[in-house]
Amino acid sequence: MAEKKVDIPDTLRRIMPDFISAGINTIESIFDKKAEKKEEWNVVERLEINFDNVFAVGNANSNFQGILIIGIMDSYVSVLSPHCDKKIELLDIFGEVGNCYCGVLMDKVSFTEIFGIMRQSVPQFAKGKIFIPKVWSVCGNIYFDNESWIHFGYAIREKTFY
User: Fold this and answer.
1) Where are the beta strands (DSSP E) in 37-144?
2) pTM exceeds 0.90
């Protein structure tokens, strides 16, 4: 019997509140700052990434491949961590943000009953605009300290190789 294919865009729309709450919980738990969603999040065919600082955490299991992208501008980094000025410190801090976000997401039954538990990769760091392949994604900003924000984007697809 063949496995039922997952309608990924529809699933992302349906469980979007879990992606949003993962972002809020992550910022509040790591940085001890009140966090909120101020604008609508979207389901898109491809993440458009262009931030001063970009952090990526891949994850996968035997059926799906995912990637969490975190984008933050330099001026907002100083709001979260005023003394952080080295690339290695940024990677450490936002690697932890990525690990926490993915951990919170893996605690969401609505996510794991469809996509399963995903194993994480080592966080990666980039600057500026990066290319992400065409993969259905959910994305949006989580705000803290009134007008500062972190962008979260999560792309997922069925595994294309084994």
Assistant:
1) 42-44, 49-60, 64-72, 119-120, 124-130, 137-144
2) yes
Give yes or no for a contact between 94 and 56, defined as CB atoms under 8 angstroms apart: no
Measured between alpha carbons, how far is 66 from 94 in angstroms, rounded to an integer? 18
Tokens of 65: 């491949």
Domains and CATH numbers, the chain: 8-158 (3.40.1550.10)
- CA dist 84 and 138 (Å) reads 29
Residues in the chain: 162
Residues 41-50 pLDDT 10s: 999 999 999 9
List the one residue out of 90, 50, 31, 67 whose CA is nearest residue 155: 67
